[in-house]
Amino acid sequence: MESFTFMTRYDLSTSIKCKPQFRNLAGPGVFTFRLKSGALRAFKLYPYRLRYSYLIQYLIEKKIPFINYVSQEKRDMDFCYIEFPGFSMRLAYFTVLALILTFSSIFLFLHQPLSVAIFGVAYLLLGVCLLYHGVLKQHSLVFDAHNLILRNYFQKKVIPYHELKKVNFGGRSHYKNVHPFFMEILDVQNNYHVFFLGNVNKKNMISAVECLKAHGIDATSEAII
Fold first, then answer.
1. Which carries the bigger pLDDT value, residue 28 or residue 17?
2. What does the alpha-carbon distance between residue 8 and residue 77 come to, in Å, rounded to a whole number?
3. Euclidean distance between CA atoms 166 and 178, whole angstroms
4. How confident is the model at residue 148 (pLDDT cuts 50, 70, 90)?
5. Alpha-carbon distance 196 to 204, whole Å?
6. Under a CB-based contact definition with an 8 Å cutoff, are residues 196 and 181 in contact?
7. Cβ atoms of residues 66 and 6 within 8 Å
8. What stretch of H or E contains 87?
9. How far is CA 94 from CA 81, 89, 129, 131, in A?
């Protein structure tokens, strides 16, 4: 192994004619390894977050070059306060679908024989799962003078800037298997985290990247708004 990249998408060379899109990798948690032979190998372990942390720690311990990590110098800048709201069409879609499934399960329990009503249990469980992904995993994001703050309807997570090593904002609409907007974080202990975001606008995204870089954090954005 010669080097690796992490927290950036992998695209096949444009020189390959009729490249199959399923061989491209995007979204959270893309590893790309360059071998000494010159070959590239790319894969994802997501959603197994702990495996990512163990692997990145192992690679850095073995001094394998992390070529898309660029150390940043802290610099003076004006106070920045940036906020990304938590609402998004993804959240609305999941919530509406969860409500439809919940009402369908209630209807089956009340108006159908037991042999049919049993499907209501499956509908109810699916509705709960959708609410979990649409509500608990959807975050608003705030940058203040000292911290990055993530919130959803039930939780709040405050991460001081000095605990962050690398941050990447992602989201590409032409990859059908990728969530619209997400944020990947690598902390100073090389632990990996992923958070899904609500509405994002281009101006705030650019400002957030510059704010993080000013605090000495390697920040990038692949999101197209």
1. 28
2. 27
3. 20
4. very high
5. 16
6. yes
7. yes
8. none
9. 30, 8, 9, 6
Helix (H) or strand (E) run with residue 83 in it? strand 82-84
Short-list 34, 66, 28, CA closest to 192: 28
Distance (Å, rounded) from C-alpha 170 to C-alpha 7? 9
Mean pLDDT in the chain?
A: 79
How far is 8 from 45, CA to CA, in rounded Å? 14
CA pair distance 196, 123, nearest whole angstrom: 25
pLDDT, tens digit, 9 for 90 and up, residues 174-187: 444 444 578 999 99
Instruction: Please give the structure tokens belonging to residue 42.
Output: 């790319």
Predicted local distance difference test score (pLDDT) of residue 28: 87
- By three-state DSSP, how is residue 32 classified? strand
Strand, helix or coil at 175? Answer: coil
Q: Could you tell me the CA-to-CA distances from 95 to 88, 128, 150, 191, 209 in Å, in that order?
A: 11, 10, 20, 31, 30
For 158, phi and psi rounded to 5 degrees?
-110, 120
How many residues appear in the chain?
225
